[in-house]
Amino acid sequence: MKLSVFLIATLLSFNSLASDYQSEIDDFFKLYQSGKVNEAVDSIYKTNKYVSSIPDQVKNVKTQLNALEGLVGEINNVGKIDAYFVGDNFVHVTYLVTYDRQPLRYEFQFFKVKQGWRVYSFSFDDALTNEITSLAREAALSSKK
């Protein structure tokens, strides 16, 4: 009985911590989709006080995200592709965001600290379609063997 209570308590505490990084990502996309790009970037970086030491890089991310709508159109869908855990202390979360013109990949990395999770890295790119093409070709070749 004590073991089952311990396991349940452990699972519940892990789930509450795990939702911290997910809620940060959810907040980012909520702000981003409503056109509040600068606030979205600030919100994703707010968990890491050390980001203030690289203001030029944060400004660059904001500039690039603000320019996206003119390049790729409006957002159509935001979908989580995967969350890759490294032990219990690091997670890499990948999203696919489709726009009018093309899809983009968004990646978030968080690591666990004493009180929840802290963002380690945030990035976005358009290389996902090239990687999907390579994987599809590999799969097609391996299925013919």
Task: Return residue spans where pLDDT drops below 50 for at least 5 consecutive residues.
Answer: 1-19
Helix % is 40-55%
Contiguous helical run count: 4
Largest beta-sheet characterization: 4 strands, antiparallel
Radius of gyration over C-alpha positions, nearest whole angstrom = 18 Å
Question: What structural class should be given to the helix and strand makeup?
Answer: alpha+beta
Order of H and E elements: HHHEEEEH
Strand fraction: 25-35%
Overall pLDDT = 85
Count of individual beta strands: 4
Question: Please, could you describe this protein's structure?
Answer:
By secondary structure, the chain is α+β, with helices and mostly antiparallel strands. 52% of the residues lie in helices and 30% in strands. The protein has helices spanning 2-33, 37-45, 55-72, 128-143; strands spanning 75-86, 90-99, 103-113, 116-125. A 4-stranded antiparallel beta sheet has the order 1-2-3-4. α1 (2-33) runs antiparallel to α2 (37-45) and α2 (37-45) packs across α3 (55-72). It starts with a helix and ends with a helix.
